[in-house]
Amino acid sequence: MTTVxxxxxxxxxxxxxxxxxxxxxxxxxxxxxLSRNGFGVISINTSLPKPLKLACFALHYAGGLKSNYLRGPxxxxxxxxxxxxxxxxxxxxxxxxxxxxxxPMPDFPDKADHYLxxxxxxxxxxxxxxxxxxxxxxxxxxxxxxxxxxxxxxxHFFPVSQYVANNLVGDYGIDPARITVVGTGRGxxxxxxxxKNYAKGHILFVAKGGFEKxxxxxxxxxxxxxxxxxxxxxxxxxxxQKYEKFTKDVPNxxxxxxxxxxxxxxxxxxxxxxxxPALNEPWGLVYLEALASRTPILGLNRNSVPEISCNGRYGFxxxxxTSASVANVIxxxxxxxxxxxxxxxxxQRYCLxxxxxxxxxxxxxxxxxxxxNSVRKPADTRPVANICHSLQ
Length: 392
Description:
Structural class: alpha/beta
Strand order of the largest sheet: 10-9-8-11-12-13
Number of strands: 13
Distance between the termini: 30 Å
CATH superfamily of the largest domain: Glycogen Phosphorylase B
Helix content: 40-55%
Shape: globular
Radius of gyration: 22 Å
CATH class of the largest domain: Alpha Beta
Largest sheet: 6 strands, parallel
Number of domains: 2
Low-confidence stretches: 1-5, 371-392
């Protein structure tokens, strides 16, 4: 058995926590910062091997649970078991989960204290996801029960935002004493320090994936309406080449494919407005990258956008996910260039002061290494345990 002290285990179900592509680089940035500050880190990849994924997929669908087998009880149980068995080989009591898919089950006893870095809850997903209609009621119920039972095993929660903290308290009954909002650091775009022409700057939209979920189509339609009233408006879409059919009749739209970091950074630094009216974006490091570039943000008045923009102080809140609402807010944004410039300057100052991986890791380590005995609570596991065993 390996003995480690003053060390944190960091797990992730999507891949290697050290990989900068895993969960937008959040685990990798935390590991890098912790290591730089003298903490030991053991990273554990709890993603399922391909044969187990295939078996899990088949059993999930055979059980009538349909959509998103990775959020189902069997996948959760298997990943929690992977983590538990790995923990048996080390002497480390501090585990930071970067996601909910491998949280401990009440009938998986171990000696570790489990902490959770979280950007969204199942309850919020059900409220806001446009895909929720594809989930059968049984799957919705089981996922909710599973999340409640898993949360009961957590020593302390680290939501990245206050709105998630509020949901943990209001909808899951978590004691606020078990919650510390930690935010995140920023992405790879360097802060902008030069002069910017907001009158001639473009609107920027970036979507490496999930184009429609991130509001790409409503933005194109909204921009088309706004551009007919203000012909000087320009829109640059990064990652949307296959959507050319939606933009071919819209003037002043530029589509790009893959860009180098330097090319992408140049677009952030010259943009007058970053627009991403995402339907269900839990957090969005890209909003922070925009603010760091002195670029005000535009997004729906839900999830993280009100918080990141300080309720519209450093950006524009779209009241509803329609092209007309997007158009109105775009026109409002460009009706006062001086206000755009002031928002950009103040938004950058706020962003650089508040959001850094150092700040996030400091809050996490102060809580983890200053906390006494675990406050884990027992939970009734019978509903989920029964379905898990029936699917195995």
